[in-house]
From TrEMBL:
Main location: membrane
One family name in Pfam for this protein: VIT1
Name of the protein described by the UniProt record: Rubrerythrin family protein
Keyword Protein transport set for record: no
Organism expressing this protein natively: Candidatus Buchananbacteria bacterium RIFCSPHIGHO2_01_FULL_39_8
Length: 288
């Protein structure tokens, strides 16, 4: 066997046995019997693929312990579906050329394609509450980012006092979070789907409040208004980046376009209201 092909087989074998341990470890931590069953099935498939590659390499490999703990903790903290799909995307980028391997081992390409298709089917069977309510979380995040970045930009020039800006932003944000939570409750109730109206409203409200907290924090910690506003805008972009990345992985959505669109909207609103705040301050002749 060509040495390059053998090295790729060993890499594939190591991936399979590592993921076998990840899926089994996650299954051990599950209370939901359906999720436990699905994870055990994927683990079994990973083990059989590892055993197949081992017959070709005639070599024993050890799992990557760092990867096992990394994806186990990510899945427990950020959600089972997100952790699994992130791991699978990492496998896709592992630079294992199955078409090249297939020249030596014809079954390789077929095994790779079948594995990916079967895993996706099984992952779709996982029941996870977070994903049911991701629309409610997105609603709270998007509204808070657009409304509060704009409001804080306007307050910065209109009020000229960091603590006053933080206080006004907090009051505005909390009032808006209650309004958004109530609206989501009524909207979910009228839709009559699988989501529980109360849970949907809580997810929306909590997401809104968390974003509000992050955005006003610079004004509470710093006295320089414009530095605070700059940090707030950076925080807004980071929140957009991380949550867009999360949803793009968990729901198989395009990342770049969604991230740029949301960031452009939030920053454009901030710039616009910054100018409005300046004009209002000049028009009313307010000095604070």
């Amino acid at each position: 066997m060509v040495e390059n092909i053998k090295q790729q087989l060993i890499k594939a074998q190591k991936n399979e046995i590592t993921e076998y341990y990840v899926y089994n470890k996650l299954a051990d931590s599950m209370n939901d019997e359906n999720n436990k069953k699905v994870l055990r099935k994927i683990a079994s498939d990973e083990k059989s693929h590892h055993d197949f590659w081992q017959t070709k390499t005639n070599q024993k490999v050890n799992p990557n312990q760092f990867k096992i703990w990394r994806y186990y903790l990510i899945s427990r903290l950020l959600g089972l579906t997100f952790g699994i799909k992130l791991m699978e995307k990492g496998e896709e980028n592992a630079q294992i050329n199955y078409n090249e391997i297939a020249k030596t081992i014809p079954e390789a390409a077929q095994i790779s394609a079948a594995e990916h298709e079967h895993e996706q089917e099984l992952i779709q069977m996982i029941n996870e509450q977070k994903l049911k309510y991701v629309g409610s979380i997105v609603l709270g995040l998007n509204d808070a980012l657009v409304e509060l970045t704009g409001a804080l930009a306007g307050f910065t020039l209109a009020l000229q006092n960091s603590k006053l800006i933080a206080m006004t932003g907090l009051i505005t944000g909390l009032a808006a979070s209650f309004s958004m939570a109530a609206s989501e409750y009524l909207a979910t109730k009228s839709e009559g789907g699988e989501k529980e109206p109360l849970k949907a409203s809580i997810y929306t409200g909590v997401a809104y409040v968390l974003v509000v907290t992050f955005l006003i924090l610079p004004f509470l910690l710093l006295s320089n208004l414009y530095l605070s506003l700059g940090l707030t805008l950076i925080v807004a972009v980071l929140v957009i980046f991380f949550f867009t990345f999360y949803t793009s992985v968990a729901q198989d959505l395009p990342f770049k376009k969604r991230f740029l669109e949301m960031a452009a909207i939030s920053l454009s609103v901030a710039v616009l209201t910054f100018g409005i705040g300046y004009l209002i301050r000049i028009f009313f002749g307010i000095e604070i």
